[in-house]
Amino acid sequence: MVKKLPKVDVVIAGVGWGGGIIASELAKQGLKVVGLEKGDERKTEDYYMVHDELRYALRYELMQDLSKNTITFRRDQKMRALPMRQYGSFLFGDGIGGAGVHWNGQTFRFLPYDFQIRSQTIDRYGENKIPTDMTLQDWGITYDEIEPYYDKFEKMAGISGEENPLGGKRSDKYPTGPMKHSPQMEMFKEACENLNYHPYTIPSANLSEQYTNPDGISRAACQYCGFCERFGCEYGAKADPVVTVIPVAKETGNFELRTHSWVRRVLHQDGKATGVRYTDITTGEEIEQPADVVVLTSYVFNNVKLLLNSDVGRPYDPSDGTGVIGKNYAYQVIKGAATGFFEEQKFNNFAGAGALGMVIDDFNGDNFDHSDVDFIHGGYLALTQTGQRPIQNNPIPSGTANWGKEFKENSLKYVNRTLSVGAMGASMPYKQHYLDLDPTYTDAFGDPLLRMTYDFRDQDRQLAKFTAEKSREILEEMGADQIDSMDELGPYNITTYQSTHNTGGVIMGADPETSAVNNYLQMWDMENLFVVGASAFPHNSGYNPTDTVGALAYRAAEGIVEYSKNGGMLA
Question: For the Glucose-methanol-choline oxidoreductase C-terminal domain, which residue ranges apply (predicted)?
Fold first, then answer.
């Protein structure tokens, strides 16, 4: 028998960055909010003295149990999709804070071009520049409209940075100054300036100095320990929901957090959401939480899975391009990298921070002329110093044996004589790339798993080759004695880690026929249901997505407050 609880103003499914921001903003406005999270509660003290690479980086302490919930994958419709049973291409966070706990902290704003990508591409190059099967569309919002929300997220998180010389205009500077520069970062900066590029320090959620944000939350500065990605921060220096927005929501007395609560359905009647049904995974009890407003703020895949399993919205059909739920899945093209080996110079590669590095945007967005290349958009090129931990990092030049005496000698020689320039390439949407429910495999509760259909295309291969060549040029200017770079991007491989930057599936836009949510992330088909996260991205930019997720969450929170007062579709 399902247990039915008293109605609340708002129920949130997933308490990471999106859920934490929504909870904080709504609770401060006096709305009664319940946040449901299927994982554990976490706090900074849980990470004291746990620089344990084996436990966190290799055994995935902070990640979802794939034996209980995962996705299935295929490259195209002719293949049989199979479940991802071991972590590879990306990592699903688990517990309070979600992926916002184990991220690196690189916090870029998308370019103005991103938000009007289709119209600006056509204006400059003509409609033939866009492949016929590329489902490119504008976002239904401009950079100028989203800029104030970027500013709000960055001030809440205390982002440390300096102005991007090729980025959109800012209404204010970053709240804290840029991170320290290491010798290798200065080498990259000098090389890029010699090549007439425009280097700047990566904007970082790892605080460069002690900071108190507008909500009164104080945090300490980064210690450059090198344990950011896949780890929680023992200092609280890395902005995450656990040390920023969630405490603010709790302090109001208007927010109730329930852990171990696996949301399985959005309940709805007569075109409106009425609440959610979830399972208490500690007892197995089925619970119904009624609410005036339902907000889905879980990871990309779970947002889509919840909607499809709940029969909310129109599922995407790749055969004719109709429907919207599951449409425009996109990933990230980050294979365009080069590694330089230095015979004489040595570097301290062990020290670092998740967002420590230098970057250029000369080949990102539409910052260069694409007339003579066979792709659109681009990506940033960066030298990052995230901390080369000993188990996972063993760089050797090409031509070295993979075992034996030579392997051991080169492993020791080059461990601190290697620098890499990497690319974060944009991912464009295609008609053939989408998410739907798997007809065969189910999760621990018998609900269909989400199925991903995706592969790299000529756009991605050309982009990766281009950025690899540019990365090599920078390393040559830096004086590397040997450079290994990617010659060709092969098929997409879900077994090899690349990034956790999955996007799309519940995309935003100005037209209900081609998008699932408006620019407040309010569903066109169900006005009291909001879907927050990178699932709203119609494509993925040449950047990390978190700053844009945070900005859209603040805009959605503003919209939910307005909706709670007046109802109706938001303009």
Answer: 434-553
Give the three-state DSSP class for 242: helix
Integer Cα distance of 153 and 133 in angstroms: 35
pLDDT of residue 335: 67
Closest to 66 (Cα-Cα) out of 301, 285, 288: 301
Is 501 one of the annotated active-site residues of the chain?
A: yes
Q: How far is CA 434 from the centre of its chain?
A: 18
Q: For 328-375, write each residue's pLDDT tens digit.
A: 999 999 865 899 999 999 999 989 999 999 999 999 999 999 999 999
Q: How far apart are CA 482 and CA 459, in angstroms?
A: 28
Domain ranges of the chain: 3-566
User: Which residues on neighbouring strands pair with residue 265, listed in sequence order?
Assistant: 277
- Residues 356, 76: Cα–Cα separation, whole Å: 37
Instruction: Give 198-232 pLDDT, tens digit per residue.
Output: 999 999 999 999 999 999 999 999 999 999 999 99
Q: Hey, which residues does 82 pair with through a beta bridge?
A: 73
For the beta sheet containing 338-341, the strands, ordered from the edge strand earlier in sequence to the opposite edge, are 200-201, 357-360, 379-384, 418-425, 338-341, 482-485
Best CA proximity match to 436, nearest among 309, 263, 536, 322: 309
CA 42 to CA 487: how far, in whole Å? 43
* Residues 358-391 as b or e (16 or more Cβ within 10 Å = b): bbbbbbbbbbeebeeeebbbbbbbbbbbbbbbee
Q: 479: phi > 0 → left, psi -120 to 50 → alpha, else beta; which?
A: left
- Return all residues near 372 (Cβ < 8 A) that are at least 6 apart: none
Nearest to 15 by CA among 563, 570, 553: 553
What values do phi and psi take at 408, rounded to 5?
-65, -45
Mean pLDDT along residues 233-261 = 97
Which tens digits make up the pLDDT trace of 515-549?
999 999 999 999 999 999 999 999 999 999 999 99
**pTM of the predicted model, to two decimals?**
0.97
Q: CATH for 3-566?
A: 3.50.50.60
Answer yes or no: are the C-beta atoms of 390 and 418 closer than 8 Å.
Answer: no
